[in-house]
Specification:
The complex is a heterodimer. Chain A is α/β, with parallel strands linked by helices. Chain A is built from eight helices and 16 strands. Chain B is globular, with a radius of gyration of 17 Å. Chain B has four helices and 15 strands. The chains are: A alpha/beta, B alpha/beta.
Amino acid sequence: MNNAKKLEVQIKDMSMRNPVMTASGTFGYGYDYEDFLSLENLGAIVVKATTLNKREGNPYPRMAETPSGMLNAVGLQNNGVEYFCNKIYPKLKDKKTNVIVNVSGSTIEEYVEVAKYINTLPNIPAIELNISCPNVKEGGMAFGTDPSMTQRVVSQVRKAYNKTLIVKLSPNVTNIVEIAQAAENAGADSLSLINTLLGMAVDSEKKTALLSTITGGLSGPAIKPVALRCVWQVAKQTKLPIIGIGGIMNTQDAIEFILVGATAVQVGTANFIHPSISEEIAKGIAEYVDRHNLNHITDIRGII
Amino acid sequence: MKYCKDFTVVSNEIITPSLFILRLQYPEALPEIKAGQFVEILVEGERDKDVFLRRPISFHDVNYETNQIALLVQVVGKGTASLSKAKKGDKLNLIFPLGNGFTIMGKKVLLVGGGCGAAPLLYLLRILKQQNIETHTLIGCKDVNHLFSKSEYQSLSSLYITTEDGSYGEKGFVTSHPILQQTYDAIYCCGPTPMLKAISKHAKEKNIPCFVSLEHSMACGIGVCLCCVVDTQQGNKRTCVTGPIFLSTDLKDF
């Protein structure tokens, strides 16, 4: 097989030249990174969460460094879906990669409204439904921690959106398989997991929490073992293509997710530290495929 | 255009046990750097496995003839403690130049710096001098041992110094120095937030535009993580992209 084709993967109707995507909230709108890499070398980029109306997000401080990771409490700051469609989309529509919009909301109606707007944009092949943000008071993670809520929001969005629908799952649940199956039954085309783990950090000298919101979402290599476990569990129990996310810093990490069942991966927090890392991981996967004499990257998918 | 490249350490000059100046060599011609811009310096990896994120540090000085930059760093945590051990010949990976930089304006301006926050003022003075702008520079520090790059400041500007213990210059804080009573076209200010606020208040009363440099914690430095926001009259703005230099009247609580 042609070498370039060995990395091509499919998420429902969306074809990607390789399995490497960038995670929402860690890659801006893609063009922020063009000084450091070529977007066309990535399978897809997921742009930051978009809500119906403009959101200011949470007060500063929103970030704390933690061992092998960081906490954030951004709170879905964005200019709203109309701004996205009118001001951001024109700058993205001709990029030579798949551009996926992360859709968030406080109510089912809001998710549906945003999905309807994005459905009208011809060059957006997929949305990622964010039912797992731990940093907003209403909605967000509430939809991703209760199977009946997941079922309701995904089925309503499914009716309003006819392209590839990815649902992003939260690890902050007792049984992630239950949520994954609810999303699958409600018509999701793919599942991406995991979003951040709910955590907190404390300053013992100042006797305060480090985040303005007290709690926030933990990301980075610290969460990779949890993410691998979640992907492995969900891949065994659903038929949907899985996108593995959580602490991917290098090629080996990405391969680990594929071995436990992921069709593609998202690189997140690592983008903050090594801005060209997603492109390097895509190259690294190609080298891995050669070194292990694979016919195709999916040969190793889910073999654990 | 932003770059992500390795620099080589030329020297690491210890000012105090918690304050040092790194001089770094760029392997090619430096791109244009504005005074007040900063770098994100990599600490993680071989240098220190316990430090995860890069550290934002402002340009203390830039020399286009030698293609060297200087960074003044204060040890505030494990990341900067790790950097303090950098030796001649070490490679350091930097993302640069980041942020907006100071707006250059006026014929006679005042620069006010507190502690290590005075760092970006040296390079700012070089730029102002090139533009033939008259400058007064007021620097406050804890004591004479914490005073850095004094002769360089003196060669570029009329320098006024305050120390908390009176070991050099006027005893006290910059906020009570009589030079503030003079008239200026602009004030440029970097240092601890209470000092920024006090100088901004003074500037507002005298109707002088006051540019302040904010030090917010940030994860990326390139505008994508949205962690470094500051509350402005136009809502939350990213310190790393819209700033770190802000007109004080644009900021809430200033």
